[in-house]
Amino acid sequence: MEALYQEGKAALTARDWETAIKKFEAALALEPGHPDAAARLAEAKTRAEEAQRLRKKPVALPAAPARRTWIWVVAGVIGVILLAILIPRIIQQLGPAPAPEEVAFWADHEVIAPGECTVLHWEVPGVEKAILHGPGFDYVQIPPAGDRKVCPEETAFYELKNLDREVIASVVIQVHQ
Predict the structure, then answer these.
(1) Nearest to 121 by CA among 138, 108, 140
(2) What is residue 61's three-state secondary structure?
């Protein structure tokens, strides 16, 4: 029985799934309660099924007549040329996205003493998110309206940016002794 089991393991290692299955089944017939033979048999069967699936050949599609292939090549080339001409013109007409109108960005106190804090407020209508950048805020996405407490240790420059990281407003908090 042990010899059959060892032969099954060797066949499993050699990826001879059919032999491995036969050896493990024979070993289990002699000793149905063998602790590892059942698991190895299941592994061999699974791998045999995978190998069978991989052996199936894909269906070959009939080749298109030469005339149709030529027409598609010409149509593709014309399409690429048109796109190369039209895309730059469309981008030029669209231009850069306009900055949101009436952006508001302010602080409760723009001059503070060391150790003091202030609150930044913003309103950016017409956008889903904006970006706050400055000491303590490394390109943090924020909602279109809100506020954040800041406690800079020295004079700090805060920027409100759109998602393209273009500055749309800024505030300077001065820290004076």
Answers:
(1) 108
(2) coil
pTM of the full predicted structure?
0.43
For residue 6 the two structure tokens come to 């060892």
What pLDDT digit, counting tens, does each position of 74-105 carry?
Answer: 888 998 998 888 888 887 777 666 554 688 89
Does the residue 41 lie in any domain?
A: yes
Strands annotated E in 96-166: 104-107, 111-112, 118-123, 130-134, 137-142, 145-150, 156-161
Q: pLDDT per residue over 155-164, tens digit each?
A: 999 998 888 7
Pick from 8, 80, 3, 66: which is nearest to 42 by CA? 8
Helices (H) and strands (E) in the chain, counts: 4, 8
Whether 63 maps to a domain, the answer reads: no
Residue 134 lies in a domain: yes
Q: Collapse the DSSP code of 54 into the 3-class scheme (helix H, G, I; strand E, B; otherwise coil) and give the result.
A: helix
Given 37, 55, 73, which residue is the final one in a domain?
A: 55
How many domains is the chain partitioned into structurally? 2
